[in-house]
Amino acid sequence: MDSSNRQWKLAHRPHRQVRQRDFVATSSPLRSPEDGEILVRNLWLSCAPQMREWMDDAPQASGPPLGIGDVVRCPAVAQVVESRSEHYAAGELVKGLFGWQQYAVVGAQARWGDDGALAREWTGLPRVQRVPTGVQPRLALSVLGTNGLAAYVGLLKIARPRPGQCVVVTSAAGATGSLAGQIARTLGCRVVGIAGSAAKCDLLVRQLGFDVAIDRHSDELVEQLHAACPDGIDVVFDTAQGAVLDACLSNLAKHAQVLMCGAIATVASGTAQPVLGLMNAIWKRASLRGFSAYEFLDKETEALTTLARWVESGEIKVLEDVRRGFDAIPLAFIDMLAGASVGKRLVHLADPTTR
Ligand SMILES: NC(=O)c1ccc[n+]([C@@H]2O[C@H](COP(=O)([O-])OP(=O)(O)OC[C@H]3O[C@@H](n4cnc5c(N)ncnc54)[C@H](OP(=O)(O)O)[C@@H]3O)[C@@H](O)[C@H]2O)c1
Q1: 232 C-alpha vs ligand 1 centroid, how far in Å?
Q2: 128 to each of 57, 102, 114, 132, how far by Cα in Å?
Q3: How far is the CA of 214 from the centre of ligand 1 (A)?
Q4: What's the CA angle centered on 217, arms 215 and 221, to 5 degrees?
Q5: pLDDT at position 134, please?
Q6: Ligand 1 atom 9: the closest Cα is on which residue?
Q7: Mean pLDDT of 103-116
Q8: Atom of ligand 1 nearest to the CA of 343
Q9: 201 lines ligand 1 (CB under 6 A)
């Protein structure tokens, strides 16, 4: 085991878009766990857009803001190296916000909110969770994590589209959108994806079974969307907001449902992107429903069991985009926000050791 721990810390708050210079790499001595703590070694890091929100100096529903000099908070799967807790044994795989670093020392039984830190949605949730046996570690950060849960509950617990209805998915080649589109397809819906390049659109149709995919940069986005959904859109699964959501709002069917899952247009640019066409929601008697996967934790077991079965059977394909090594971490995150990733962007740091 290393005697020091390499870490990426927040050097400056990003001004709008995130840049490499907003982070600084450091190395600090690795401390041993104390009673009740575990020392974990990070194996896989998730590049989650939510992390950009924590870099601003404003409380977010999804967690407290980072301080300057803090290790960048990040969801990760790790292996327990040393345990001073009766709840975890060395060698086990765990998931938590272990951050942009090689190792982390965490309280095994700690819960969000214990220390008074603001994390409204997470209050009471465990800071460390066991990765179930048999689950490939990296899948716990995508389809068998928050992306999968959000896609599943959005479609199966909130919108419940009927076969033949038209579902449009934004950021459709992204971590959540690629799953939402495939789930809508399994429900027998007509699925239209909006993504950031011709190559991504081609992949959505050829590999993931979308009926149509449209490049969000097209000058004719609105016209193409009308052509793809001639009777209007019944369900929008939106992770983008901004201009892409506006295009969808311009073509709603009567009583359409708009699932407001994310706001990557605002998150990626670091500045609020307007949505101008809300009048359409009135004209079409549409429902707009913001939701969070964290509000459906009672459905997590059902969702993850079903998703695991779909992945196993090949019904759902998991798109992954892997960068490797500690040095690659900031850029992996930055260019995911800029649209360079296909599916879930992950950083691989290490393989688990067998004991
Ligand atoms: N409510 C929940 O429980 C929940 C759960 C998971 C995620 N989310 C939210 O959903 C959003 C997406 O998260 P994700 O993890 O699935 O990430 P993601 O879709 O993989 O995000 C990266 C992608 O965003 C797209 N993008 C960047 N700028 C955009 C813009 N201006 N307009 C449209 N698309 C843009 C890019 O794809 P293209 O260039 O191909 O468009 C990029 O590849 C985030 O806001 C996240 O916080 C919410």
Answers
A1: 23
A2: 25, 16, 13, 13
A3: 16
A4: 65
A5: 87
A6: 262
A7: 83
A8: 20
A9: no
